[in-house]
């Protein structure tokens, strides 16, 4: 839920509660005031009626509620003495303008007693009251209008405020979403005077800066570590080679040297592959040029022709289209070469390597003694389908790293007993 | 032939020197920037092996000085950094070649020979051993004056061995040289073995006075019979 809507939700609920409480209190006050008013009125009327009766201007007092809204009933002295002024709400049949027949209406009634010429009388005076239901109804409508007005103004104020005040935050958020560690040069920034936003920007900038430092160090560490290993490895290999060259060694000794030498070579290849990966990720190859994938494939297939013949494998190249891609030539060479070599070396006697070049894709398929590989691991670093393989397990990881760098997509599937690697050179967003 | 090895890592310097002495070169060494500058400004060398990262300065500065004196064309840069920028800069400054550590002794030999041969400029571009003549321009082999057909890889392999006469060429070095840098498949080694077997058959058929001597488990030496 958006901040604006969330704010609106809480504000509306609070306003509703406040208005409900306020209108209840207001209603009670109103009732109180109305009663006070009516009671004073009744009191006044009582005095007037008693005065009139005393001056005998009133010849015959009303015995039922009539035009004067009072009635008089004679009572005994004891009753009169006990009687006090009593105000009470009651109902009487009355007919208003809008009523077709009399109906019960609320009235306020004062009952009191007075003495006149030795006789005691009970006097009841009524005054019509505002109908509570009418009052509640009207009050409810005005409160509802107030509420709607309030909510509408809150929404519009909110909208303006959020657009005005929060817009730096939204722009900042947008920049932050697009920010990639080690890839984006522009740091997210916002132009604002609001202290909280300034604090946020400072916190984010500090965080990014810290992360970038760590990322740089990490990148440099892999590169530096690999570089530092080069010289000791050189010493090791060259010493072993010189040692093997000197005569007079026993076959067992030579065998041990050969084993150590091969192990050292593996270390060298591993180190070189890691260095290559680190360089790809550090974008140290970006001498992009327009390259013909067709030429590259033909050249590499040609290079591998001898070894393919030796392994009794046929390399078929089918060029449906001319495929030209803009990328670094060293990386292009590594991608194509790794894919074809991979297909050649994980093959079987009498097998095939089928290469197809279409308008946008390079497809390298090979036969093999093995069934489908685990799709999610094929491109993982150090993944080997065969644990005894002397490969580094980095060949396809390097292919993927290069594809990631350029936004190409590489996929693997197994179909009709062929392992198929498909490289799509279109930027990933165009075909997804 | 006089070769200067500029390398700060003592063990590597010594092993390279030992190998070069075997090739009958006169070898001098320098271990830091200052002594390197002293040597190159005073003496002339047929080939200079130059490490880029030196205590006291950069090998590229040494190269710069050599270029100013017109002597940078016989420099082979040896660097732990396989950096394209360094490579381009080095080659721009006139260096002949760029070799990344770690390298094989055989590969270093081959590169040095290439530099030395370019310096001779006598038009002759052949490698000879016993009664073998390998013409690098024509990419052809003749044994005892008779021409022998070689396929492409056989030619590359023989070429490499002739640059490393009487020296051990390990199978790994050979595979890397013949197949390029990023080879990491053991299958190649079997292929190389079969290529050497073929070459050997051709040597025998034409009564060549050279032969491959196997160094158990490691590689081969090409020796005169």
Note the run of SSEs of chain B as H and E.
EHEHEEEHEHEHEEEEHEHHEE
The strand count of chain A comes to 11
The percent range for helix content of chain A is 40-55%
Structural class computed from helices and strand pairing of chain A: alpha+beta
The poorly predicted ranges of chain A are none
State the helix count of chain B. 8
Rg of chain A, nearest Å:
49 Å
Question: How do the strands line up in the largest sheet of chain A?
Answer: 6-8-9-11-10
- What fraction, in percent, of the residue positions of chain B are helical? 40-55%
Mean pLDDT, all residues of chain A: 84
The protein's oligomeric status is: heterodimer
Biggest β-sheet description of chain A? 5 strands, mixed
Largest interface (CB < 8 Å): A-B, 49 and 46 residues
Spatial separation of the terminal alpha carbons of chain A: 29 Å
Q: What's the overall geometry of chain A?
A: rod-shaped
Principal-axes shape call of chain B: elongated
**Low-confidence runs of chain B:** none
N- to C-terminal separation of chain B?
A: 26 Å
Q: What is the average per-residue confidence, as pLDDT of chain B, rounded to a whole number?
A: 87
Describe this structure in words.
- The complex is a heterodimer of chains A (432) and B (225).
- With 432 residues, chain A is of the alpha+beta class.
- Chain A is built from eleven helices and eleven strands.
- In chain A, the strands form three sheets. A five-stranded mixed beta sheet of chain A has the order 6-8-9-11-10.
- In chain A, strand 3 (103-116) and strand 4 form a beta hairpin.
- Chain A is rod-shaped.
- A five-stranded parallel beta sheet of chain B has the order 2-1-3-6-7, with helices on both faces.
- In chain B, helix 1 (10-22) links the parallel strand 1 (2-6) and strand 2.
- The longest helix of chain B is centred in the C-terminal third of the chain and has 19 residues, at 187-205.
- Chains A and B meet through helix 5, helix 6, helix 8 and helix 9 of A and helix 1, helix 7 and helix 8 of B.
């Amino acid at each position: 839920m958006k901040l604006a809507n969330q704010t609106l939700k809480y504000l509306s609920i609070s306003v509703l509660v406040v208005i409900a409480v306020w209108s209840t209190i207001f209603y009670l006050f109103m009732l109180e005031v109305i009663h006070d008013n009516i009671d004073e009125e009744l009191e006044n009327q009582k005095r007037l009626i008693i005065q009139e009766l005393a001056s005998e201007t009133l010849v015959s007092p009303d015995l039922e509620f009539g035009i004067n809204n009072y009635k008089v009933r004679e009572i005994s002295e004891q009753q009169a003495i006990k009687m006090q002024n009593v105000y009470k709400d009651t109902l009487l049949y009355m007919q208003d303008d809008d009523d077709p027949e009399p109906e019960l209406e609320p009235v306020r009634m004062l009952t009191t007693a007075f003495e006149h010429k030795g006789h005691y009388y009970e006097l009841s005076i009524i005054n019509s009251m505002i109908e509570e239901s009418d009052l509640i109804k009207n009050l409810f409508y005005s409160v509802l209008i107030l509420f709607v007005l309030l909510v509408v103004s809150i929404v519009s104020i909110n909208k303006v405020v959020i657009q005005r005040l929060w817009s730096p935050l939204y722009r900042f958020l947008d920049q932050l979403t697009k920010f990639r560690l080690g890839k984006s040069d522009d740091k997210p920034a916002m132009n604002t005077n609001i202290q909280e936003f300034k604090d946020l920007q400072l916190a984010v900038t500090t965080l990014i800066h810290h992360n970038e430092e760590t990322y740089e160090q990490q990148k440099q560490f892999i590169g530096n570590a690999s570089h530092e290993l080069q010289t000791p490895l050189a010493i090791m290999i060259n010493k072993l080679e010189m040692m093997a060259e000197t005569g007079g060694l026993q076959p067992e000794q030579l065998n041990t040297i050969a084993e150590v030498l091969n192990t050292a070579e593996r270390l060298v290849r591993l180190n070189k592959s890691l260095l290559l990966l680190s360089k790809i990720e550090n974008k140290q190859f970006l001498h992009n040029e327009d390259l013909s994938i067709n030429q590259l494939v033909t050249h590499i297939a040609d290079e591998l022709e001898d070894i393919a013949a030796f392994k009794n494998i046929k390399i078929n190249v089918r060029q449906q289209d001319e495929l030209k891609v803009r990328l670094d030539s060293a990386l292009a060479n590594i991608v194509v070469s790794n894919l074809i070599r991979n297909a050649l070396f994980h093959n079987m006697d009498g097998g095939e390597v089928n290469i197809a070049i279409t308008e946008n894709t390079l497809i390298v398929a090979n036969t093999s003694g093995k069934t489908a590989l685990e799709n999610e691991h094929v491109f993982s670093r150090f993944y080997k389908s065969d644990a005894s393989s002397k490969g580094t397990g980095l060949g396809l990881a390097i292919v993927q790293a290069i594809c990631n760098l350029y936004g190409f997509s590489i996929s693997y599937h197994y179909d009709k007993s062929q392992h198929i690697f498909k490289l799509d050179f279109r930027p990933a967003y165009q075909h997804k | 032939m006089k070769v200067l090895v500029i390398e700060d890592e003592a063990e590597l310097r010594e092993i390279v020197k030992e190998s070069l002495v075997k090739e009958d070169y006169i070898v001098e060494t320098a271990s830091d920037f200052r002594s390197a500058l002293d040597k190159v400004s005073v003496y002339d060398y047929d080939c200079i092996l130059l490490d880029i990262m030196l205590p006291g300065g950069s090998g590229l500065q040494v190269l710069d000085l050599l270029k100013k004196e017109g002597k940078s064309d016989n420099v082979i840069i040896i660097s732990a950094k396989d950096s394209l920028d360094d490579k381009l800069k080095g080659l721009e400054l006139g260096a002949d070649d760029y070799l990344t550590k770690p390298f094989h002794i055989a590969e270093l030999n081959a590169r040095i020979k290439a530099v030395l041969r370019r310096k001779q400029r006598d038009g002759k571009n052949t490698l000879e051993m016993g009664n073998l003549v390998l013409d690098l321009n024509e990419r052809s082999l003749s044994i005892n004056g008779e021409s022998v057909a070689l396929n492409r890889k056989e030619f590359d392999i023989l070429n490499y061995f002739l640059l490393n006469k009487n020296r051990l060429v390990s199978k790994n070095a050979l595979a890397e040289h013949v197949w390029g840098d990023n080879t990491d498949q053991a299958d190649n080694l079997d292929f190389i073995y079969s290529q050497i077997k073929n070459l050997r058959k051709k040597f025998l058929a034409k009564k060549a006075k050279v032969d491959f001597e196997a160094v158990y488990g490691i590689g081969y030496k090409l020796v005169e019979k």
